[in-house]
């Protein structure tokens, strides 16, 4: 199968989003295997980095017959066909199912992905937990951008233009004093797997202030990534002589991402370790 993930408008309202179908987010560029293929071929393809730790099994007309993954190949030796080891009972979804309902199925069953089939069981694509995360990003990011824009417009009595573009991470001016080390690891995973939410920044003359996404930006800096996608709110210096966020950054001694402190989560003031001896435990 070949093709690309369908693109969606990033300005969807929550109500519109609830009506979006799986077809809008499913992956269609899926590697498959036939039932008469040798398991040795599957092993080679898995070693080469096949998607989803396995391969959907389809016939010549793309009917979904099963799935063969690494777990199906444990202790399998010799010349054996895929049809002899593949998993035949699969949870599948239809393309018209809502993203919201498909995400519920994924999270409740613990599956990493769901095959998407039509009424005749033709394999159309795969909807994964990563696709569910992407769909959530496209739902939450616009609302955060809009809230930030409304706050700035109300505070400074100006109209603010919003655009999308890549920004240079090393040139960002932070407005948050610290981040947590454990969250940086999570953001690193998101960056590596294309799941990172866009940054929200303010274009303030010759400066670019980071409003939302400090963990993402620090994780990108650590990974050597210097360009990230962002929603950019333009605040003209000639209309706003003193931007509150800029003043807050200045007072905090924040001039670059190097000034942001990285805190160990377990040392957070609201987190403490219990002392068994304090209660007479033996």
TrEMBL record:
InterPro entries: CBS_dom, CBS_dom_sf, Diverse_CBS-Domain, ParB/Sulfiredoxin_sf, ParB_N. Gene3D superfamilies: CBS-domain (3.10.580.10), Conserved hypothetical protein from pyrococcus furiosus pfu- 392566-001, ParB domain (3.90.1530.10). It comes from the Archaea. PROSITE patterns: CBS (PS51371). SMART domains: CBS (SM00116), ParB (SM00470). Keywords: CBS domain. Residues 26-84, 86-143 form the CBS domain. PANTHER family: CBS DOMAIN-CONTAINING PROTEIN, CBS DOMAIN-CONTAINING PROTEIN CBSX3, MITOCHONDRIAL. This is ParB/RepB/Spo0J family partition protein.
